[in-house]
Amino acid sequence: MFGKYSSIVILGALLVAQINAFSLDMSAGKTAVIAGATGYIGKSTVRESVRQGYKTIALVRDKSKVESKEGKMLYGQFFEGADIVECDVTNPAQLTKTFEEIKAQNGDIEAVISCLASRSGIKKDAYAIDYQATKNCLDSGIATDARHFVLLSAFCVKNPWLQFQQAKLKLEADLQAQEKMTYSIVRPTAFFKSVSGQLEVIQQGAPFVMFGDGEVTRCNPIAESELAEYLINCIADKTKENEILNLGGPDEPLTMKKQGEMLYKAVGKEPNFFFAPLWLFDTIIDSLQWAADTFNSEKLENAAELGRIGKYYAVEDMLTTDPSEKFGKISLQEHYDRIAVEGQEYDPYTTMFAKAPTSD
Questions:
Q1: Cα–Cα distance, 244 to 150 (Å, whole number)
Q2: In this predicted model, what pLDDT tens digit does every residue of 121-164 receive, in sequence order?
Q3: Burial class (CB in 10 A: 0-12, 13-18, 19+), 287
Q4: Domain annotation for the chain: domains and CATH numbers
Q5: pLDDT digit string (tens) for 196-225?
């Protein structure tokens, strides 16, 4: 009986290995160009593209941020096996020339994957990056006969009352209107990073801050590595062509309070919550907007928009419960347990009150 069971296990393992090998054969020698390669999701997407066997071109604005003078990769293993190409995606002429060079050196471009996203979300940044720079990548892909375009968008564009959401929707519309390339528009609910910002806060003894009663919103975020896997899968998966794809992680709906409890469990402390009233957002936003209008101040207008972004995520669910829209196996608790020990990459926009790492 045991021998028979072992044979089944071995046959199953061989079948999985053959399927994986077939998948790699399908991508072998094909070129994938990744824009936004040094971003949070971009780095993982570069690594996943290499893992799946694509000839991977990572577009970066500044090589020195990826590779030191000694040739050492500053991002660890993320860029191993990829070709790093320096290019300014906000310069359309330079970008198209770069795409032409990539095609001349590597053959036809199988896919362009855009992981570009504005850092702040304010109007100027959003339309420069979420729209125009991404549109430049689309135009350059079309000019060089690239086959497929994968766009990392956002689930939150379903209810767009923020500038960056409107910029993303404008690009989505342009992508759907063109007929030269097939496309996949991927809208993840949330990244693990975006719900991990208070780690350092509670480690330092401060309370976990939430709005309302902590039960206002729910989400099921996805791990960066598994989102990257999904993005690269879109290149060869015909069922994902010319589709808008909502995507969440494997967790059941998680409230803000539940996230706090999970984070305290990870750091081994008793929960300590601070509940902030939602009306604070309106008071701050209205005051900033009044001052911006009165003094015609772009700086204050940007501050008001940042307030609106904060309110949006305090009152809107980032959640999909459709089983067909959930992907991956890594739970948020597993992520919290890991970063509680290893720490997390510093990000001034999502890591609350933490200090940037100092260079030695």
A1: 10
A2: 999 999 999 999 999 999 999 999 999 999 999 999 999 999 99
A3: middle
A4: 11-193+220-254+319-331 (3.40.50.720)
A5: 999 999 999 999 999 999 999 999 999 999
User: Per-residue pLDDT tens for 38-76?
Assistant: 999 999 999 999 999 999 999 999 888 787 656 566 666
Which amino acid is present at 284? I
Which residues does residue 185 pair with via DSSP β-bridges, in sequence order? 151, 244
CA pair distance 115, 35, nearest whole angstrom: 6
Percent of the chain with pLDDT over 90: 82
Give 352's pLDDT tier (boundaries 50, 70, 90). very low
Cβ burial, residue 204 (10 Å; 0-12/13-18/19+): exposed
| Separation of alpha carbons 304 and 291, rounded Å | 9
Picking from 195, 202, 190, 191, the residue whose alpha carbon sits closest to that of residue 354 is 202
pTM of the model: 0.89
Distance (Å, whole) CA 59 – CA 98:
9
Contact (CB, 8 A) for 142 and 109: no
Distance between CA atoms of residues 198 and 208, nearest Å: 7
CA distance 158 to 167: 13
The 3-state secondary structure of 39-64 reads CHHHHHHHHHHHHCCCEEEEEECCHH
- What is d(CA 102, CA 33) in angstroms, rounded to the nearest whole number? 9
Helix/strand number for the chain, H first, E second? 12, 11
For residue 122, which phi and psi values (nearest 5 degrees)?
A: -70, 160
CA dist 263 and 331 (Å) reads 12
Q: Which residues sit opposite 187 in a β-bridge? A: 246
SS3 210: strand
For residues 175 and 134, give the distance between their C-alpha atoms in angstroms, rounded to a whole number.
Answer: 10
72: left (phi over 0), alpha (psi -120 to 50) or beta: beta
Residue with tokens 């000694």: 70
